[in-house]
Amino acid sequence: MNRSLIVLIIVVLAVFVLGGGVGIFFQTQKDAPLLKKAEEMEAAVKKLSSKVIASTVAYGEVTKIEGRNITLKYGEETLTIKIKDNAPIYSFAQNKEKIPVQQAAKFEDIKTADNLNIALKLLSDGSLESQSVIILPSFSTNTK
């Protein structure tokens, strides 16, 4: 009787260990695509944060301004960007010929509902840094 009990315990432990090993194997197979995707994203961040890529551009309508953080909305997506203190800001004014001309502006000139182009640099830690801001002219279809 003792011998059959010992054999039963050994079989149960073997099944438990084997089940645990199979579970670990399948879990690593399940996580493998996620790890590969994370590695691909890390490689993309490295490429986009290289010195070869000077900047990329965010475009949208200003929905919120809090301090130096500006939230842009385009379609259903929003993005909040901190504008560096030394980021150059430009806007457009019309000259005598009613042609838009770019001119220097201040951060305070940015208002809610303005459309902006913000040149961004992706940093190696994955954060975004503003490089410059352009306040785009509003093109009115009103011909009064």
At the third CATH level, what is the topology name of the largest domain? OB fold (Dihydrolipoamide Acetyltransferase, E2P)
Shape, principal axes of CA atoms = rod-shaped
Classify the beta-strand content into a percent band.
35-45%
Quaternary structure state of the chains depicted:
single chain
CATH architecture of the largest domain: Beta Barrel
For the biggest sheet, the summary is: 7 strands, mixed
Order of helices and strands: HEEEEEEE
As a whole number of angstroms, the C-alpha radius of gyration is 29 Å
Q: How many domains, in number, for the residues?
A: 2
Average pLDDT over all residues = 84
Determine the number of helices (DSSP H or I, runs of at least 4 residues): 1
Low-confidence runs of at least 5 consecutive residues: none
Question: What is the CATH first-level class name of the largest domain?
Answer: Mainly Beta
Which strand order do you get reading across the main beta sheet?
Answer: 3-2-1-6-7-4-5
C-alpha termini separation = 103 Å
Count of DSSP strands = 7
Please provide a written account of the structure.
The protein has 144 residues and is α+β, with helices and mostly antiparallel strands. It folds into 2 domains: 1-48; 56-136, OB fold (Dihydrolipoamide Acetyltransferase, E2P) (Beta Barrel), CATH 2.40.50. It has 1 helix and 7 strands. The chain has one helix at residues 2-48; strands at residues 56-66, 69-74, 77-82, 89-94, 100-104, 115-122, 128-136. A 7-stranded mixed β-sheet has the order 3-2-1-6-7-4-5, with no helix packed on it. A hairpin with a 5-residue loop joins β4 (89-94) and β5. The longest helix is centred in the N-terminal third of the chain and has 47 residues, at 2-48. The chain is rod-shaped. The model has no long low-confidence stretch (mean pLDDT 84).
